Amino acid sequence: MRQDNRLSRVLHALLHLHQMKGPATSELIAGMLHTNASVVRRTMGGLREAGIVNATKGHGGGWQLARPLAEITLLEIYAALGSPTLFAIGIDAEETSCLLARAANQATTEALEASRRQFEDALRNVSVLDIAAGWNADMAHCAPRAG
């Protein structure tokens, strides 16, 4: 199963945006994330709708943080990405007449739901600034400068 790496990639991009003096184009962000600009625009569009980033058009335009990193939780970002499925595990046929299959499905569903709640609680308690706070000053060289 293919992994959904959008959360870590978006965090990477937001940390770079925090270091930049001006807006970053979709092309610049795509280069940082080793993807293409259309993927960046689609992903960042969801973040814009959630109030995490702003976009300006035209020469000198691009993506910028809409709020300070301390006000952006990892849960907000996860939600803006559509709350991707955490596991490849699922239940057997949803509509089954077998009582044993129903019991197995219920146990699996309850465990997955508990895991999702725990994961979201962990994300709720971490801001993007918490991640940035771990940076060492000599790591700043990896951030491209826009503007």
Automatic annotation (TrEMBL):
Pfam families: Rrf2
InterPro entries, per database record: Tscrpt_reg_Rrf2 (IPR000944), WH-like_DNA-bd_sf (IPR036388), WH_DNA-bd_sf (IPR036390)
Xref: PROSITE patterns: HTH_RRF2_2
PANTHER family per record: HTH-TYPE TRANSCRIPTIONAL REGULATOR YWGB-RELATED, WINGED HELIX-TURN-HELIX TRANSCRIPTIONAL REGULATOR, RRF2 FAMILY
Full protein name: Transcriptional regulator
Protein's organism: Devosia yakushimensis
